[in-house]
Amino acid sequence: MCSKTQTKTTSSSSPPASFAGQMICLSVVTCVLAVWCKFTFVDESTYPPLAPLHSAKTPLALTTLYLLSIPLLKTFKLSNPKSLLLPSMLLYNLFQVTLNIYTVALILHSLKNGHPLIGSTTSPLCSTAIWIHYTNKYLEFLDTTFMLLRQRHDQVSFLHVYHHFTITWAWYFGVLLWAGGDSYFGALLNSGIHVMMYGYYAMTLLGMKCPWKRYLTVAQLMQFVSVVLFTVGCVYYNWRRLEGRHFMAMGIQVGEMGSLFFLFSKFYKKSYTKKIKGTDDLPIDECQNAIQEGVENNMYVDQCAQAVKEGVVGINEVGGVVYSRLEGKERVLKGAVKKNSWSMVG
């Protein structure tokens, strides 16, 4: 017979992050964004929307710094990451929700006011929204930063890094080669999904349940397919008006969506259909701790102990009921475990 163990939490000796320090960091980020917007802003009245910082040197420098920062940040160990990062993460996720809602609204407003749904190569009405979406790809590097500072190194997978690195380049070429017309579609879908995704992250940080979290990866897969199909439609409707730069932009888009669909499908198959392995040698408190860790750390539960001889019900909030033994009757549900998609920023 197993007994539940009581664990006492000890308060950390490190002081919480000061308000002044957080405001300084916010001010630095704001200044950097102000400089970026000054030199790269895309005005709908100008087309093509070329600006000084749209040369290849900019994404080359920033994506290289992104890759180099990953091993460096892995060496950082915060003594009290929760108190230090929670306010910043919440603010960041709420900002992303707001920015992506604004991008979606801007595109829908342009469609309402004359931007063709499909079949345009030159309409500049969505150029500003596409520029905002492109700029946000650099801000999304903070997803990786927060993961590493939280010591969630397993979340910074090949898929995660590949996604952030390549999608930035894909949208750079999108702005450079075809920032108007039909290129709005990918930004519209991706911004809509990011509203759901960052909304889910914010709700998780606030301790709220999110009804759509299990559908995020499926929505991302549908996005990739939809963009490819829309691109085929663009070729059909614009065939006589397309130039070499348009074909190059579409080729990059299709290649990016195809590679992400392949990698996300592998992730989905591995993470969402992994069977739970029951074991008999773990006490109930360890099993519950493993489940809670899986929920908090966005990891699927590799092993789950069977319930103790007394009637116990274990719940994995990510994947539903993991095991149940009531009144001495064993019932193990070996369904798929639903993994949180924190590392699936897309």
Automatic annotation (TrEMBL):
It catalyses: an acyl-CoA + malonyl-CoA + H(+) = a 3-oxoacyl-CoA + CO2 + CoA. GO terms for biological process: fatty acid elongation, monounsaturated fatty acid; fatty acid elongation, polyunsaturated fatty acid; fatty acid elongation, saturated fatty acid; sphingolipid biosynthetic process; very long-chain fatty acid biosynthetic process. Keywords: Fatty acid biosynthesis, Fatty acid metabolism, Lipid biosynthesis, Lipid metabolism, Membrane, Transferase, Transmembrane, Transmembrane helix. Pfam families: ELO. Its main location: membrane. It comes from the Eukaryota. One of its GO terms (cellular component) is endoplasmic reticulum membrane. Its EC number is 2.3.1.-. It is a multi-pass membrane protein. It is found in: Membrane. InterPro entries: ELO_CS (IPR030457), ELO_fam (IPR002076). One of its GO terms (molecular function) is fatty acid elongase activity. The chain crosses the membrane at residues 20-41, 90-111, 117-135, 156-178, 184-203, 215-239, 245-265. Belongs to the ELO family. This is Elongation of fatty acids protein. It comes from Triparma laevis f. longispina. The lineage of its organism: Eukaryota, Sar, Stramenopiles, Ochrophyta, Bolidophyceae.
